[in-house]
Amino acid sequence: MDIERKLKALDRIYAVYDEFVRTRETACTLRCTTCCTTHVTVTTLEAIKIRAALLPGAWESLCGRLTDHAEARRFRPKVTTNALADICAEDGEPPPENAVAEHTSCPLLLDELCSIYALRPFNCRCFISCRPCAETGCADVEEFVLSVNTVFLQTIEHVDAEGCSGNLLDLLGVLAIEAKRRAYAEGSLHCTANGLIANRPMQVLMLPPEHRERIEPILSQLRAIRI
Fold first, then answer.
1. 3-class secondary structure, 109
2. pLDDT digit string (tens) for 83-135?
3. For the ranges 85-94, 123-132, 167-176, 177-186, which has the lowest average pLDDT?
4. Can you tell me the distance from the alpha carbon of 153 to that of 147, in angstroms, rounded to the nearest whole number?
5. Is the pTM of this model over 0.90?
6. How many CB atoms lie within 10 A of CB 219?
7. Which DSSP state fits 198?
8. Cα–Cα dist 84/149, whole Å
9. S-S: 161 plus which of 12, 122, 188, 201, CB 3.0-4.6 Å?
10. Are 9 and 227 spatial neighbours (Cβ–Cβ below 8 Å)?
């Protein structure tokens, strides 16, 4: 597995999305942390990006916070976005997800700021709301933005099709172990045995027909990224 090539593709995908977000009006402000919980999901590639970019001291500090929050309740997905797209394309019924009502703050927050903000995964980048989430307890997101987010989630999973997905805290914990990082690099990390779910290549876009023409410029940018 050429991880460096995949990481470069991931950076370009993030850049396309960040440019899209700059065109939107959002209520998100500095130290607004309502959406910063233990329920964020990521791919192995995104977790590797975080692990590779942090200096030893910063990584050790992060691992310490993960240990302190080892028992924190968190959302653990049962299917990936591309798996869900495949199920929907076949008119199947996706398995019910385990809802986690408790909203525990993300242990990566320090003084109400994300300690890995520049490295934050896509699920954090796409938490954008038209009005403050604290007012209603949830984000107010346009339908078109939800469609765009889904396309990016599918694309990121596709880039990491040989890897896994799962809760951010779980994946950082798994990849803190050198043998697990080596297994991932070799394409042999066992997802289920590590409490994760296997990624899939993108077979079908989960995109409403009414948004296809409007999203085409973004799709063109994503197609141009060499994966």
1. strand
2. 999 999 998 888 887 776 567 888 888 888 888 889 999 998 988 766 766 66
3. 123-132
4. 10
5. yes
6. 15
7. E
8. 14
9. 201
10. yes
Q: Please tell me what DSSP assigns to residue 223.
A: H
Domain ranges of the chain: 3-223
Calculate ∠ Cα 174-175-177, nearest 5°.
Answer: 85
Question: What is the Cα–Cα distance from 182 to 191, expressed in whole angstroms?
Answer: 14
For 167, the 3-state DSSP assignment is strand
Written as six digits, the tokens of 76 are 């653990």
27, two tokens: 């209520």
Beta strand extents in the chain (DSSP E only) = 41-43, 109-110, 113-114, 164-167, 197-198
Q: Which two tokens stand for residue 84?
A: 């869900």
- State how far the Cα of 197 lies from the Cα of 180, in Å rounded to an integer: 15
- Asked if pLDDT for residue 140 goes beyond 70, the answer is no
